[in-house]
Every structure is written in C-alpha cells, then in structure tokens.
Amino acid sequence: MTSDIIVARPVPAGSLRVLETAVYRGPHLYSRTPMVRIQIDLGRLEDFPTDRLPGFADKLATLLPGLGDHGCSYGVPGGFLKRLEEGTWLGHVCEHVALELQVQAGATVTRGKTRSVAGRPGVYDMMFAYEDAECGLLAGRYALQLVESLLPAELRGFSGLDLLPESPLAVFSLPAALADLKRLHAARTFGPTTLSLVREAEARGIPWRRLNADSLVEFGYGRFARRICASCSTLTSEIATEIASDKELTNRLLDEAGLPVPQALIVGSEEGAVRAAGKLGYPVVTKPLDGNHGRGVNVGLADAEEVRWGFAQAREHSADVLVEQHFEGSDHRILVIGGKLVAVARRVPAHVVGDGVSTLSALIEKENRNPKRGEGHEAPMTRIAIDECLLHFIARAGLTLETVPEKGAFVQLRPTANLSTGGSAIDLTDVIHPDNALIAIRAAAIVGLDIAGIDFVAPDITRSVRETGGGIIEVNAGPGFRMHLHPSEGMPRNVAGPVLDNLFPPGTPATIPIFAVTGTNGKTTTARMLAHIMAATGKKVGLTTSTGVYVNGQRIMEGDCTGPRSARLVLADPGVEVAVLETARGGLLREGLAFQRCDIGCVTNVSSDHLGLRGIETVEDLARVKAVIVEAVHEKGWSILNADNPLTAAMAAEAGGRICYFTTRARPDWPVFLKDHVRRGGRAIAGGRSTGTSDIVLYDGGAAFLVGRVEDIPATLQGLADFNVENALAASAMAICHGVSLPVIRSALATFGTSYEQSPGRLNIVDRNGYRTILDYAHNTHGLKALGQLVGKLKPSHSRIIGVVGMPGDRRDSDITEIGEVAAGMFDLVLIKEDGDLRGREPGSVATLLVDGLRRGGLNERAIRIIPDELQAVRQALDLAREGDLVVVMADDLDAIWHLVSTHERAAGTEGRSHHLAAE
C-alpha cells in the first residue's frame, strides 16, 4: 500500500462500504500511536447496534475468546464484552476485532479508537494500532469480513474491499484468515536480534526506521544515523566479515596470535578429507569452509567412513571443506561487543529425555509442542527437525526413531549445539574464567569485528582452557542474540544495550535538531529565515518547503515538499546537521509526522484555508491538525506560538516542552495570558511598528534584551510588510530557543531579503521598465489580506495597481468568491488566470467564481479580464503596465512566472495602452 489516503469509488448505497484507508506512521490528528485508519459507512447497519443483533455478541466471543481481555472504555478485562451487551456500533466492534486478529497472529497491539465523522450519519473512522502496516491493513479487511459474516443474511453486503490488501481466500473463514495473517506476520516481523535492538532504541528515545522487508534498520537522524542488519552494524568492517567467513584464515590468524585453536586442513574431496583426518588424528570435525548456523557441521567423527559422510554433508554448503581437530568439552557462545565481553551461554545440542515408555519419535514430537519452541527464530528455541543429519547421528549411537530410551536417559539428537537446529542455551556470563574471557576478546579484536560471536569449546568454562584444553573453534560475524535474550536456563542478558552504546557512545547524540514549522500562512518564509539563521551558525541545514527540498542551500528536489516523505529524505541525509521542516496539513492528514518528537515546533497562525477537505470542515478542525506539530515537541524542547492568533495561542494547553510566544502588539495591548506569561519569567519576543518602536525585544526570565531592529531586516521592507515581521519574530524565537546567539540572529536576518533565490514566490520584487512587480504565492483569504495591507501602504507611491489573480480549485466556492471580494478592494485592474492543475474542477469554474467575488467587491466589469493561461495573463499584465504602476501576481508556476517578470520586455505597441479592459 502507498502512504497516501486511498478513496473508494462511488458505489450503490445500502451495504457496508469502505470509503478510505490511511496508514499513520507518526503522530497524527488522532493519536501519537502509529495506526491504520479505515473509514466505513455502515449504511443501514447504523440502525443495528449490537444489542439489536440477537446472538451476535455470543458468536463473536466464541470465535475470538481473546476479546474477553479487552478493557475498552471500562479499562478492565471484560469491558468490551460489556459494551457488546449494552449496545455499540459495528465500526467499534471491527476496531477491536482487528486488534485481536493481529494479537492472534503474534503482534502486540492494544490501542484503538473509533469516531463518528461529523455531519455524515453512519460514517465512522475506525482506527487501530499495528506493528506492521501490511498486517494491520489485512487484519482490518478480515475484521470487516468476520463481523459481516455474523450478521443476519438480510443485513450482509460489502463494497470497497478493493481498498484493502488482497486476500488469497476465495471464501472467508476465520481459521484460514488467521493462518494467512500468521504467515504474513511471520514473514514481516523482526527476528529476536533485530527486535531487541529496536526495543532498546525505543527505550532510549532513539528514532528508527525499517529500510527493507528484512532486518536492515536505521537508528538516529542525519549525520548521526547508524544502521544495523541483524547484528552487523555500520561499524562492522567488511574485511573483518570476510575474514570471519573464511574459517581457515581465521584459525591461522588466531593461531599466529597465540590463541588456542584446533589445527585444520582444507580439502576438496572425500579421500582428501580422510587423509587430513589421519594427519590430524581422530576424532575430527568436518565443516563448510564458509558456512553458518551450524549447517553441514559434524563433530566427533571417529573413522574414515564417518569422515566421508561428514565431508558430503559439509560439501552441500561449501565448495571447500575444513577438517579440524576435535576439542573435547561443551560448546559455548561468547558474545563480544565493542571490545567487551557481554554474555556467555553454554549451548546444549537438541536432545530429549527418556520416560521409559515413549519412542524417540514420540519424545521429539512432545518436545516440539513446548511453547518455547517455534519455527525458525521466532521463539526462544527452534523445533527439532527430523532429517538425514539427525538420523545418521542417532544411528551412530545405535538408535532409531522407534527406540524407547530408558527413563531419565539423556539422548542427544544432533552433533552440534546451534539453536537453529533445536539446541538450547544456559547462561554462564557471571562464571566464565578471566583467561577464557580475555581469549575471546582478543579473538574479536584480531578478526576486527565490533560484534562477534566466539564459539568456544571447554570442558569447564569456569576454568582456564590453558589448563583444561579446548579453545576457539569459530568466530562469527553477525551473531544471533536469541540464546542470550531468552536462555533456557539462567539470567536473560540485555545484549542490545552494548550495541547501542557502541553505535552511540555516551555523550554522542543519536539525532539532529529538528525544527518543525506549520501554519496557514508564513510557514515557508519562516522556515527559510530559520534555515538561513542556522546556516549562519556553520551548520549544514536540510530544509523542506513548498518549493522543494534543500540541503546545504542546494535544491535537491523540486515541487511541494512539505509532507512526511520529504521530511524523511532530509532526516536520512547523512550530511545534514539541522533539519528545518515546513509541515503542511496535507501530509499530517495523510500520514502523520515523519518523526515522533521534534526539538522545536512552531505554529505561525491558523485561519480559514483548505476547509471542506478530508473531514476538516471548520477553522477549529484545522487548528487541531496544526497543533499536532507542537504536541510532538519533546519535554525539553520549545513550542513557538503566535500570541496574536487566538487559535494558535490556545495550543499552549496541549503543547510539549516550554512555551515561547511572539507578538507584533505593543506591550500595553498584550492579552492577559501573555502579560502573565512574561511576568512569571516566561519567554516571548515582540516587534513591529504596531509596538510603537522598530525594536525587536526578547523577554526572558523577567529581563528584556534587544534582538534587533525591524528596518534592519530587508524582508520586512522597512517594516511595511507586517507578515514578514511576524515571520522574522517566529524564526528568531526558534533560533533563540535553540541557543543561537543574538548577534548571529541579527546578522543573519540582515542578509535575508525578498529575492527569488532566498524565498521564491514570497514577496519577490522586480523594478523593471519603470514599473514594479511583486510576485507572491498568496493562496487564501488571510494571505491575500496580508498582502493587501502592504499594497495599501505602497499605493500612494504608485499610479495604478494591477493584479493577476487566481485560486486553487480545491477550495470551497465561498472561499474562491471571497478571494475575489478581497482582490476588488486591492486592485484597479484584475486579470483572472487559472492554475495548471484544476484540482477536479471544470475549466472556467474558478474564474467564474472570482468574477462573482470581484463584482460583489464593487470592481467595475471593465476592469476585469479572464485569461485562463497563467503565463499569458502575466505577460499581458506586464505589457499593460505603465511607468509608476505596481503589478501584483498571485503565482502558481513560480519558476516560469519569475523568469517572465524578471526578463520581460514590453511588446511593441503596448506602451501607454488604455487600462479599460472589456470583461469576457
């Protein structure tokens, strides 16, 4: 599935319908927990809560008894079943079923919620947590199908399932659905090693993301990011891994270093193996030269026939075979991480204990029913497979599967003790002899591995092998952690902790500073100003904006890049030292945030825009979406809020970290909450001509500090551009809260102007051919009114004001008409254009609404012209401009329009042309 919201095609009413699906991967409007959202329309089922469906609750509880553990709103086991009895709607039921199906498949998920969609009776947003998004979506599908299957025949009916993952089931059945979910979960879930590292990272607050369908995981952000694949890490040397995979080379290097290793010879034929065994002395061991997981390894081979058999087994896994001396003793795994011994386990080969009654076959079957055993690496121990190796090994002891061992008899089933072949582990970390520990640590260092599993044979690990005999039989790169995390006996060891300590030593950050900026207007300029300030500190800045992604000032991706995908791109860049992320509502609604926590979050303002889309009907709804940013600020961070915007200021109640307000009001005009905040020593920054002075002042800890002067910031046009004063205050507040010094902020803002290079499409000004052109992306009423205030201040120094006006097609009719009304009060002449992407509207419909608004605003129809093509509209406006005029362009295709206005030469015969235009 893609990360985008998927919307169903229209279908006939009357049946249960899936309308939308979405996967939230970070904090979102509904929760901080990653969730699947499935929007459903119950249709006629809205009239049938569970208390009106006889037998439904009992049938469901019988099929999924685990639902009895769901506390639901009561917070105690049985709470959900009580809700079923009292009567609850089927969307809520499906939410709990989806959670339980995931639990039955092996996931650990508990959180969910279902909410009715305002103004749409019978429509619900069903949301539930997931460990893997694909598994979660499939569980949602099966939950809907299960609930529907329990309804009376006359109430059944489905549509929209094509929005959910395909199912291999021709006909739904719960056992088959659970089997399918378990298969998918097993294929997608992390193994114990990777899972332990991910859980340790979460406990430390280190962000992580999965890079593929296997075990490749990235921890941290930007320049501090590190990767692991199982237990191989960013620090694991490829050369060291190659050495470890060559067993003969490893033995030789360790032997040269004076470490105890068996003598070994490489052979390429059965007879060569027999000759090598004769030279080394029986018994011997045969193993693949570059094998792993104990595959093809056989020990204690006592004669030529066994050596030939052992060679054949090893040859299946490697072209060359190693024949080596056999060390007497128990098999141990010593785990060395970062040059330190962190865990020791004695590995016991797969075995059973006789009861005097059962055959070996029955004893193995019984042992495989042990709940600690599972397939592969999913459980603490692996099930014992009956294969040729097992049969040959027990035959050497004179046994068959039909043999009935005596009661209490220990029957070893395999020659090696690997967990992957059914072995078990006993923790001995606290009792290993110091000599043995030092030998293992030196071996890891000699091979060059940051994480090494040392296979160590010793009669008694508590005594030095220098005295007892024994030593290293293998050094493994990428060792599994399962035996140390879940030993069959002894203390479990947190071996993931040392790995994270090695990747991120004490005092080393795992993440880069993250600044997140949102708001209805001003977020792009604010983000660019902040990035400019942070670059002045010498940091390499990653920036996402509505015009692209920038790294260290270079645009690496074009387009509207204000969503989570672009943010992840910046956070993953290995050179980025600071992330400044413009964050728009679309990505928040579609997928949530790209990060769990940010250092500083800023909301510039909230006003009417994009209403009527994706369930956001009111400006209060929009404010709740924008608030997700500051709710994600960590406890030691800062939330930057516009004190002049009531909806934004109110976010302080739920915002994370500490609060810093910004305001353009004079101190006597401050609202009570701001006065109290500063009086208590809280932080705020104020500036702008409305304060009665051009000074920008920081209030902090009861003191006041001069940040700078408004007229020293070119982007404010000597303070005339009030909206850029606000943006400068917001950017300064974020920089101050991050600890940037006031001189650096002051100096950086003094070099931030309105050039297209610094802030494309945001108050870009060109003086050419005797007239002035302003290019701005004003795309909503609030933004155009703010631009209109500036135009009003500039009007006395210009002859006429010509506007090129457009509006995105995904706004409500009333919003587009209102833009026309505002424009009527700003311009003497208006040329109406339409965006290249009509966003679902018919050609001409936006223009018609704008004309209606211009008429309502009182603009004479002779001063209106419709020229749908944006380039043509701008070109004609520039041709019409006379000396002293001001042309204001609300641009969509910024690059093309900027090139036009900055290079335009007036067409022949157009100078002095009348400004009275006939309406079309």
Automatic annotation (TrEMBL):
It catalyses: [L-4-(L-arginin-2-N-yl)aspartate](n) + L-aspartate + ATP = [L-4-(L-arginin-2-N-yl)aspartate](n)-L-aspartate + ADP + phosphate + H(+); [L-4-(L-arginin-2-N-yl)aspartate](n)-L-aspartate + L-arginine + ATP = [L-4-(L-arginin-2-N-yl)aspartate](n+1) + ADP + phosphate + H(+). InterPro entries: ATP-grasp, ATP_grasp_subdomain_1, Cya_phycin_syn, Cyanophycin_syn_N, Folylpolyglutamate_synth_CS, Mur-like_cat_sf, Mur_ligase_C, Mur_ligase_C_dom_sf. PROSITE patterns: ATP_GRASP, FOLYLPOLYGLU_SYNT_1. Transmembrane segments: none annotated. This is Cyanophycin synthetase. NCBIfam families: cya_phycin_syn (TIGR02068), PRK14016.1 (NF010623). Its EC number is 6.3.2.29, 6.3.2.30. It comes from Gellertiella hungarica. In the C-terminal section; belongs to the MurCDEF family. GO terms for molecular function: ATP binding; cyanophycin synthetase activity (L-arginine-adding); cyanophycin synthetase activity (L-aspartate-adding); metal ion binding; tetrahydrofolylpolyglutamate synthase activity. Residues 251-504 form the ATP-grasp domain. Pfam families: ATP-grasp_5, Cyanophycin_syn, Mur_ligase_C, Mur_ligase_M. Catalyzes the ATP-dependent polymerization of arginine and aspartate to multi-L-arginyl-poly-L-aspartic acid (cyanophycin; a water-insoluble reserve polymer). Homodimer. Keywords: ATP-binding, Ligase, Nucleotide-binding.
